[in-house]
Write a structure and sequence with these properties.
The protein is globular. Helix 10 (about 325-335) packs across helix 12 (about 365-370). The chain has helices spanning about 80-90, 95-110, 125-140, 160-170, 190-200, 215-230, 250-265, 280-285, 310-320, 325-335, 335-345, 365-370, 390; strands at about 5-10, 15-20, 25-30, 40-45, 50, 55-60, 110-120, 145-150, 175-180, 205-210, 235-240, 265-270, 290, 360, 380, 385. The strands form three sheets. It has an eight-stranded parallel sheet with strand order 6-7-8-9-10-11-12-13, sandwiched between helices. Strands 3-2-1-4 form a four-stranded mixed sheet, with no helix packed on it. The longest helix is centred in the middle third of the chain and has 17 residues, at about 215-230. By secondary structure, it is an alpha/beta fold. Helix 5 (about 190-200) links the parallel strand 9 and strand 10.
Length: about 400
């Protein structure tokens, strides 16, 4: 057995925290240091300890991280944006290398899991999916990556795509995606028949990109919630973006929030900078699970992002007008526990019996970390310090514990 004891840390609420780790799992944790025995003891110097972050929405196949900087090219329409993306990705290095570079960057910030949307349609086939699966394999055991077969070009409007989506799930994608069933596809019922049909036949989860605005978008959300409830898929369906929830009045919001909560449909928002987005606190108060992710990172869609989920939590709080500690902790929860629940992660979080993978950083509590986004991150995987963490913290034997008996020399 390998025992490690970590002392002098604080938890998200700023309370004293010590951890006892054995064979990579949390044996005990609490305010008081555990009996050390023969364990290696490490002083965390008053730093905040958090579970690793969870990115609930990322596109590893699109990013230019790991490639040269590419200036953003404006587009007048969605179809023009898709055409620009195709051109730029065709001239970029292979997906495997770019995906690997972005996973490495996110992991260095403390991300331990992510849901990755990968383009699958009649033009790309399974090429993107297989490339990301290759990158995923390299990080197995370090970053847990769930894959979504994402029909970026549409489902019904891109002939052959339904068959490719089903093939992607059979190949290993855990989630089947959709996108704007009315405004992009022009056939809401047809797209939802396809997506929900694949999920039901193959036991997949569902995550639908929904950018449709206003009342039209809310009607679409209600339609997805109704199907989820009818097919008994509570807890297995998410809607990403759901901009419409930020467009409508209080009455319409309360009505659709109740439908989402009753159906067990989650909402992902990354608080985009150019439009209204779902009101986080109102949805959570109604019982809707709301989580977050980085979405696009330095790609053809926008030049922003670095893969840091703590920074994303800050942006959620900033754009939502969060000021109190409780509100800031809500943003942190969206980038950790809420996203972990949507991904179905087992053994996640700082609890006895769970894997001892966590992040330490210089902050007095979780709210302060969200507000300031400290650049320093010290990573621990399965109880072992990784990289800079091994040099940052000294092994100690606190004075409160019996020191080794050293024989006195005779004069």
């Amino acid at each position: 057995m390998t025992d490690r004891v970590y002392i002098n840390a604080v938890d998200a609420d700023g309370n004293p925290l010590s951890l006892h780790v054995r064979d990579g799992r949390i044996l005990a944790l609490g305010a008081e240091p555990p009996a050390a025995g023969a364990a290696q003891v490490t002083d965390l110097r008053g730093h905040l300890v958090l579970p690793g972050f969870v990115d609930g929405h990322i596109h590893l196949d699109k990013s230019f991280v790991g490639d040269r900087w590419r200036p953003h090219r404006p587009a007048a329409s969605l179809r023009e944006r898709l055409a620009i993306e195709k051109q730029e990705l065709a001239a970029a290095p292979p997906i495997e290398g770019r995906a690997d570079a972005l996973i490495a960057q996110a992991a260095a910030f403390g991300t331990v899991a992510m849901r990755c949307h990968v383009d699958v349609d009649a033009t790309t086939g399974l090429d993107n999916l297989r490339a990301v699966m290759t990158a995923r394999e390299k990080w197995r055991g370090i970053v847990d990556i769930e894959l979504v077969a994402f029909p970026q070009a549409g489902v019904m409007s891109c002939p052959g795509t339904p068959q490719w989506l089903e093939a992607a799930v059979r190949e290993g994608a855990e989630v089947v995606g959709g996108i704007d069933p009315s405004t992009l596809d022009g056939d809401a019922e047809g797209q939802l028949d396809c997506v929900f049909g694949i999920a039901e036949r193959l036991g997949a989860k569902i995550d639908i990109h929904l950018h449709e605005p206003g009342e039209q978008g809310v009607e679409q959300i209600a339609r997805i919630a109704a199907r989820t409830r009818a097919q008994g898929l509570a807890g297995r369906v998410a809607i990403s973006h759901a901009y419409a929830l930020g467009d409508v009045g209080q009455g319409a919001l309360e009505d659709v929030a109740r439908k989402l909560a009753d159906a067990g449909v989650a909402i992902m928002t990354n608080a985009p900078g150019d439009r209204a987005f779902p009101p986080v606190l109102a949805l959570r108060a109604a019982g809707v699970r709301v989580f977050t992710g980085n979405d696009n990172i330095q790609d053809s869609w926008w030049p922003y992002g670095n893969g840091d989920m703590l920074q994303r939590a800050m942006l959620i709080g900033y754009r939502s007008g969060f000021y109190t500690d409780g509100e800031l902790l809500t943003a942190l929860h969206m980038a950790s526990h809420a996203a972990a629940e949507v991904l179905g992660l087992q053994g996640y979080g700082l609890q006895v019996g769970n894997e001892a993978s966590f992040v330490a950083l210089p902050a007095p509590n979780g709210a302060a970390a969200v507000a300031a986004v400290p650049a320093q991150r010290f990573l621990f995987r399965k109880g072992v310090p990784v990289g800079a963490a091994a040099q940052a913290y000294a092994s100690v034997r606190p004075a409160a514990w019996p020191a080794p008996r050293v024989p006195r020399r005779s004069p």
